[in-house]
Specification:
With 251 residues, the protein is mainly alpha-helical. The protein is built from 10 helices and 5 strands. The strands form 2 sheets. The chain has a 3-stranded antiparallel beta sheet. A two-stranded antiparallel sheet has the order 2-3. Helix 9 crosses helix 10. The protein is globular and about 55 Å long.
């Protein structure tokens, strides 16, 4: 697996305090989920925690890929992974990484590391695409209740934040989405809007297919560093079909 070389951002970490307690990742947890959980555990102020974690007091407003990742790696003493590892395994960048060239990947890492840099969506070219450049927080209400019952807390799951995912394959229901951006570390279960339920088996299949494809793309780099070469699209198609239920005929 290749590791992209990026700029040295060690100068921005001088005189920045480290965390007193560094939590471990929960299974499937997104970067924003860990930060929100850490904020709850620490009982600190929203702005103070944002500054310690990312060098920006309003970091809580960026729910997909924050700037200042070099600060985060410094604050967590590298115990939670490098910038590249975290981007590929704990943020929505995981779904775009297989499509990115080596040059774009370096730009992504540099932009994420810097406190004040080109926003990640612009590096990916998302504003000009049909996907849009904002990835709102989503969660499954049933998963949320299960998490509260089992451990008293439910964290944001990366699998439910990926582009194109509006469906929980476990509970066979649409996700809920947070509509407003606020200067707080959000937790699942508040100020969300349930997405519309599918009206036919064909819509259920379409939602399942999109969920499986996004999850497959996000896992490609971790499973095998194949990227998307000449046969990458056929591989994605094969992986996506193998992760979906049997196609439902459209009447």
């Amino acid at each position: 697996m290749s590791v992209c070389k990026s700029k040295d951002f060690s100068y921005i970490n001088k005189n920045i305090p480290r965390l007193q307690h560094i939590p471990t990742w929960w299974e499937g947890e997104s970067l924003y989920g860990l930060c929100s959980r850490l904020h709850m555990l620490s009982g600190g102020r929203t702005r103070s925690d944002g500054y310690i974690l990312f060098g920006r007091e309003h970091s809580c407003r960026i729910v997909d890929v924050p700037s200042g990742m070099a600060r985060f790696v410094h604050a967590t003493e590298g115990l939670l992974g490098s910038t590249e590892v975290i981007l590929k395994s704990r943020t929505v960048v995981a779904a775009y990484w297989p499509f990115a060239s080596e040059a774009t990947r370096r730009q992504l890492i540099d932009a994420a590391n810097d406190v004040i840099a080109t926003p990640i969506p612009i590096v990916l070219g998302l504003p000009a695409s049909k996907f849009g450049s904002y990835h709102p927080l989503r969660y499954c209400a049933a998963c949320h209740q299960d998490g509260l019952s089992r451990r008293g807390y439910f964290t944001w799951q990366l699998s439910q934040q990926l582009p194109g995912v509006w469906w929980c394959p476990q509970h066979k229901q649409t996700l809920e989405q947070v509509q407003k951006v606020r200067s707080v570390w959000r937790q699942p279960g508040s100020e969300s809007l349930a997405l519309g339920s599918p009206k036919s088996d064909a819509e259920v299949h379409a939602l399942s297919l999109m969920q499986a494809l996004s999850s497959t793309l996000a896992s490609l780099e971790r499973a095998s560093p194949i990227g998307l070469g000449p046969d990458g699209h056929s591989k994605c198609s094969t992986y996506g079909q193998s992760n979906c239920s049997t196609p439902v005929p459209v009447n």
